[in-house]
Amino acid sequence: MPLELFNTLSGKVEPVYASDGANVRMYCCGPTVYDYGHIGNFRTFLHVDALRRVLAMLGHSVRHVMNVTDVDDKIIRNAGAAGQPIDVYTKKFTDAFFEDSDALGVERPEAIAMATENIDGMVALIERLAAQDIAYKAEGGSWYFRIAKFPEYGKLSKKDFEGIEDGARVDVDEYDKDAARDFALWKATRPGETGWDTPLGAGRPGWHIECSAMAMKYLGDSFDLHAGGEDLMFPHHENEIAQSESATHQPFARHWFHVRFLLVEGRKMSKSDGNFYTLRDLLLKGYRASAIRFLLLSVPYRHQLNFTFDGLTESTNAIDRLRTFHTRVRDGKWAEGTDPALALAIHEGDLAYTHALCSDLNTAEARAAIFDVLRAVNTAADKGTLLRAEAEATLTLLAKFDSVFAVLEDRDAELTRAALAWAQREDREADASLVATLSLSDEDIDKLVAARTLAKKQRNFAKADALRQELLDKGIVLEDSKDGVRWKRK
RNA sequence: GCACCGAUGGCGAAGUGGCUAACGCGCUGGUCUGCAAAACCAGUAUUCAUGGGUUCAAAUCCCAUUCGGUGCUCCA
């Protein structure tokens, strides 16, 4: 079954495939490392992660490249304010970005392209454009792209620039450009700023040329898919197309994948509204990394997602149910045999799951298919009719589910501990009850649980209940089953 | 202002012309349990923002209105 995705360029849902017959070559615009990533950033990276994981699930080999923008105006400004060289400043946030990505289960792309390590390629591309008189140097020493030379400009964002008067909205300061919409390829260095001495003159690359140069370096002039947040469609991606296709006279990326923005508690996320959250903020409030991943992934990428704390609680509970179920099927003792009706239900769940993901990455429907199977198998297990064959089929399906959603393995306590350690180093506040819960080690908990089990055996229920309450107060929930006592952190 | 997208139960959300409107969370009752928890069972929208229209048939198509969001400028 092919994966079909909406293509912004064509406006249609189309199959994704490897045009070179070997790898699906995809490029995703990565972070600009001037601050910690927020959950809006990660929504995009999480859906690109789901995309690459679905491709892998379907048997494709993927070559995924992501850039890191480690030089731009904001970085230069912030590094200057912090009194740091830009490479020191950006390293901190680059490292933080990958730590956060790991915490959220985002797989590493096959290649990470750092802007500052690819200046040569950008200069070469600009020179190639200059040879065709598409790039030109303006009075201040900066280079611009001559949009008039690319008649298809606007084909991605479906903008019609006919009738837009040149100069109609031009800033007074920008008289050195030939036309108002012409965008910067190379920005001349101003005194005291970071720059590179190149045949173009001293300066630094514009943001758009970075992605064009690096995508083509790693993936070739023409490749399969280009991804990013919806805001990048214009002007960033439009400009990438203009630059690349002007240079190569070939289609740049065939398929364009754009992830919509999220809202937080029904409002646009913004620092001034106080609803701006980084991953670290949420971990320190006591929310789990897995719940954040699951919530951000549960709403399909083409829909706006309203991120709420209630939603996070919902996701936490849903994951608990999935994990409990997984453990139950994996660790239970199931008699030999098979039950055709249940086998069929699992098979149909598998088909529905795969079909949903292939249908424009419908993660909500895929999730629903798994819960249908969960209920059917739990019912059978309760009735004593779950047999070995179906238990194994269920585990296989769960593994397939987790190859995309990646929430079954519980790394949450460990990740939250890491966030707490970071908060301590950086002198940031963390939720007090969270600190208390995590201060209790697994060994301490096991001891208390054992004491309670002993009290229970002696039918000293008052003492047993007191111990259970003590654990609950510290965020530990107990579950008694025939196979013994399980505990988990709330 | 111009352009585009969305509005489905208490909450999140699937479904884009045709069976009783998925699924998750929550809530209520039951089973199980020393009591809980977990799990299961039953119940929880006669109805899909509002008004009109097309059709044998609409949550799904068309028009209008209201509300929310986005782009046009740095932004995932």
Write up this protein.
The chain starts with a strand and ends with a strand. The chain folds into 3 domains: 4-259, 3-Layer(aba) Sandwich (Rossmann fold), CATH 3.40.50.620; 267-405, Isoleucyl-tRNA Synthetase, Domain 1, CATH 1.10.730.10; 440-489, no CATH class. The relative contact order is 0.10. Strand 6 (135-137) and strand 7 (143-145) form a beta hairpin. The chain is globular, with a radius of gyration of 27 Å. The chain has 490 residues and is of the alpha/beta class. It has helices spanning 39-57, 73-82, 86-103, 119-131, 207-219, 233-248, 279-284, 289-298, 309-331, 340-358, 363-383, 388-405, 412-426, 432-439, 442-457, 461-473, and strands at residues 4-7, 12-15, 23-28, 61-68, 111-114, 135-137, 143-145, 184-188, 196-198, 201-205, 223-229, 253-259, 262-264, 267-268, 305-307, 476-481, 484-489. The chain has 16 helices and 17 strands. It has a 5-stranded parallel β-sheet, sandwiched between helices. It binds one RNA strand of 76 nucleotides through helix 1, helix 6, strand 14, helix 9 and helix 11.
**CATH homologous superfamily designation of the largest domain:** HUPs
The appropriate CATH architecture of the largest domain is 3-Layer(aba) Sandwich
Strand segment count: 17
What is the subunit organization of this protein? Answer: single chain
CATH topology (fold) name of the largest domain: Rossmann fold
Question: How confident is the prediction overall: mean pLDDT?
Answer: 91
Overall structural class, as computed from helix and strand content, comes to alpha/beta
